[in-house]
Amino acid sequence: MKATLVLLALSICTAAPAQSLFREETWRPLTADNKAFRPGDVLTVQVLENSSAVTSADTGTRRNNRMQAELAHGIRSVGQTSLTVGGDFDGGGRTQRTSRLLTTVSVTVKEVLPSGQLRIAGAQSLTVNEELQTVTLEGLVRPADISDGNVVPSTRIAEARITYLGEGDVAERNRRPWWRKMLDVVGF
Hints:
The chain is mainly β. The protein is 15% helix and 55% strand.
């Protein structure tokens, strides 16, 4: 009877699967920084972007062409004609654009490259006065550029693509209407 109980206890013990409390994909040493370093980790990006561009052009052209013909018979002039063509053009233009974007976006590490760089991507949407504003961000980050607080400035992101789009009445009013675009193509 004792032998049967021992065999039964051994069969129950061997049938139970062994599980470990250690999971390699989520393990972090006690002395490690709380920085993003693997796919799925969240990283905070402080977007501080300023851009300014000025373009100007001045054009001036002058053209005068003159053609004259005379038909003579002997000493007497039989016919005379003249053609004068001239033109003046003065043109100029100036374009100036300034933009500034200050925001904080949380992104996710999508991939760790063989070089150790982190490929990040994320988006943030915010509605203000019934206007939907969306910031999307992607690029490459060196782990050394991430602060102890798990924050990286946008100026330290390689191959950065930062897009800021607004949708609503104000954004719609800033777009040229279709008929104006058509007139621009025709040259009016």
